[in-house]
Specification:
Layout: E1 2-5, H1 11-21, H2 25-36, E2 42-47, E3 53-64, E4 67-79, H3 88-102, E5 107-110, H4 114-119, E6 123-124, E7 128-130, E8 139-142, E9 153-156
Parallel strand pairs: 4-5, 7-9
Antiparallel strand pairs: 1-2, 2-3, 3-4, 3-9, 5-8, 6-8
Length: 168
């Protein structure tokens, strides 16, 4: 199995994984819209020897109090169900975190699968709130900004219009 940064040729395999493997067409539409809007900061894939996408982790820019300060949010985390009992999800996450750190991103925010993310080293961030999701808890993984969990801020997720997508 190969873990690497996503390339353009992976888009169809990622879409298939999300739509059919994870059976989540709404997430597939969301990821497609983010991609078309240029709002995927980093995508990491796991492929088999034939190039089939077995896992995908995507990160998108997130604004902090209306500003871009080089923070990102986990916008997708999908694993082929056959690999759910392996370390693939963790491997993809840390491949992404390592790459983001190399590119000088300052922090990574998560708002889904919070307990699992905390087990991976993400910190609770009670002073952060998501603008569109209200009281949704968030966790944060500091990269260059070690005190990121202490921030008091409103976070704005990347916004995309799903009505303009072409149907598949």
């Amino acid at each position: 199995m190969l873990l690497r940064t996503e390339i353009g040729l992976d888009a169809a395999g990622i879409d298939t994984l999300i739509r059919h493997g994870a059976q989540d067409p709404q997430l597939a539409e969301h990821i497609q819209a983010l991609r078309e809007a240029g709002l995927i900061t980093l995508g990491v894939v796991a492929t088999d020897d034939e190039g089939k996408v077995l896992g995908y982790q995507a990160f998108s820019p997130i604004q902090v109090n209306g500003e871009d300060i080089n923070w990102v949010v986990i916008s997708a985390a999908v694993i082929d169900p056959q690999y759910s009992s392996t370390s693939l999800a963790k491997d993809l996450l840390f491949e992404g975190l390592d790459s983001l750190n190399e590119f000088s991103y300052r922090a990574v925010v998560g708002y889904q699968a919070l307990r699992w993310l905390e087990d991976q080293g993400f910190q609770p961030a009670s002073g952060l709130s998501l603008e569109s999701l209200g009281e949704q808890e968030v966790v944060i993984y500091p990269l260059e900004e070690q005190d990121a969990a202490q921030h008091q801020a409103v976070l704005t997720l990347p916004s995309v219009d799903l009505t303009e997508l072409t149907n598949h």
